[in-house]
Amino acid sequence: MKIAIGCDHAGYDLKQEIIAHLQKDEHSVIDCGTYSRDSCDYPDIAAQVCSLVLKENIPGILICGTGIGISIAANKLKGIRAALCNDLYTARLAREHNDANVLALGSRVIGPGLAVEVVKTFLSTPFAAGRHQRRVEKICQLENGSLREE
Ligand code: RB5
Fold this sequence. Notes:
The structure is a single chain. By secondary structure, the chain is α/β, with parallel strands linked by helices. It has a single domain, classed as Sugar-phosphate isomerase, RpiB/LacA/LacB (Ribose 5-phosphate Isomerase B, Chain: A), CATH 3.40.1400.10. 47% of the residues lie in helices and 15% in strands. It is built from six helices and five strands. It has helices at 12-24, 42-56, 68-74, 88-96, 112-124, 131-144, and strands spanning 2-7, 28-31, 60-64, 82-84, 102-106. The protein has a five-stranded parallel β-sheet, sandwiched between helices. α2 crosses α3 and α4 (88-96) packs parallel to α5. The protein starts with a strand and ends in a 6-residue tail after the last helix. The structure holds D-ribose. D-ribose binds at residues 8, 10, 42, 64-66, 68-69.
């Protein structure tokens, strides 16, 4: 599977660890940076990863200190459904119910062992569709302004 990944300075160490695991599992990883622990701005990284997610229709992984800033930034982009998941249950449901295309992680919240399992769960769980399809479609309608209060 092809996967885009990116982080800010706070997420750098965890990103390196996750990349190593993804490559061991023979995934093809596109690393959008950042490439050191030097301070940078997470919206810049969210923009790069999300642009690949949308263009190539691949999953994305974003990491910052809490996972909050980078997921808020990602969710400003039309077509992105970024889910902040620091446990296995939300990782599974983010895919099954929400068809999330970006996983956000908080490197200061979650340890590397659990983070790798969260990534595996996110990547291996399909969207359940059914009743969830209609709700995801309504999220798209919110993006394009066609869902109105009744
Ligand atoms: C950087 O210090 C920190 O603010 C950032 O990584 C993230 O946690 C923001 O939401």
